[in-house]
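Hi R.,

Here's the chain you asked about this morning:
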Amino acid sequence: MLKIEHTRNVRKNILRIAEGLSLSKEHMRLAETVALFHDIGRFPQYSRYKTFRDAISLSHGLLGKKTLIKEGVLERLPEDERELILKAVNFHGAFSIPTVFDGDTVFFLKMVRDADKVDIFRVFLEYYDSPPEEQASATAFGVPDTPEYSKIMLTNLYNREVASYMNIRTENDFKLMKLSWIYALYFDESVRLLQERGLIEKLISKLPQTDEIKTAMDVLRQYITERLG
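And here is the predicted structure, written out as tokens:
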């Protein structure tokens, strides 16, 4: 149910981004299709491995691509659309977009990556706000929820860089990494969605309010102000 709701929201997000870019109805339909299928690999992933962590199972993007091919879901589509959707599903969660992809594939990948990140903010805030017995276990990253945080995460935020999963040691590191995603969003509309929904400030409120974290958050807020005017 977590992923069903997530998929619905990513669909809404990508349509909002597409509208902000004044895309044609045909391109909006294609964007919507990419969003609907982007996480289909999560279902075989959880069925087999009981986790949503790619690092200890398999890439959910690759599982999604294989599922779509196996079930013949896209067979009626033109070959160019079919290939674009398969690439977008396969690589939407990659650390970076492969440089060998054509412009259209890169464009739709950017949209779904943004739409995905925007809703992941909501997913984790709901996780943090839920009583322990109601928290979705597959959402947990498996690190201690202690007051500590890593300096490298703050350095990334100071430098307007995206933090790496590899440096996560505590829940606070995980929260800081999510906030650093704002620097990786491709479209202004994506940043605006986070702002409108109050998701950025809600996640900041979950962090220890130390002076160095406050300074890093001021850098982040300044970036958002500059970007959105």
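One quick note: Residues 1-115 form a domain with the Hypothetical protein af1432 fold (CATH 1.10.3210).

Cheers,
M.
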